[in-house]
Amino acid sequence: MIQIRPADPDDEAALSRIYNEARRAQFHWMDVATIREGDFKRDSEDEEVFVEDRDGEVLGLIAIWVPDSFVHHLFVAPEHQGQGTGSRLLEFAQRRYAWPLHLKCVEANERALAFYKQRGGVVLERGFHEEVPFLLMEMPLLDAEA
Fold first, then answer.
1. Distances (CA, A) of 72 to 1, 55, 57, 86, 112
2. Which burial class, exposed, middle or buried, applies to 111 when counting CB atoms under 10 A from its CB (0-12, 13-18, 19+)?
3. What domains lie within the chain, and their CATH numbers?
4. What pTM was estimated for this model as a whole?
5. Residue 99 has what pLDDT?
């Protein structure tokens, strides 16, 4: 059975694996040699983290920095990409919070940019982080009842 639930301490190894494997596979603008085992725990500190779980296997994760209604991380295990996990996690977050969500997407991440735009994401502004261009986007608020 597939469910979306809050992450718990037992998920730490799976969260780290998904975060690191997805970045190694897709973040060609990043020096992947700098990726370390504790990155996800550090990079998601104080965020609300939810996972999509299928019969005890974590398929993907979303981490929200609630004070800024900001999607900080949305990652799906490489072997489960293209199967709806990312869409379900994003929609879950859009329905959970009573405000539009924001996120940054690196311009070079064409796949992610297309994903967000297909789901109603609107570019608000362009910026740079460590000389890497990104787009600040807003995701539409979804009806909590649907």
1. 27, 26, 22, 14, 13
2. exposed
3. 2-99 (3.40.630.30)
4. 0.86
5. 86
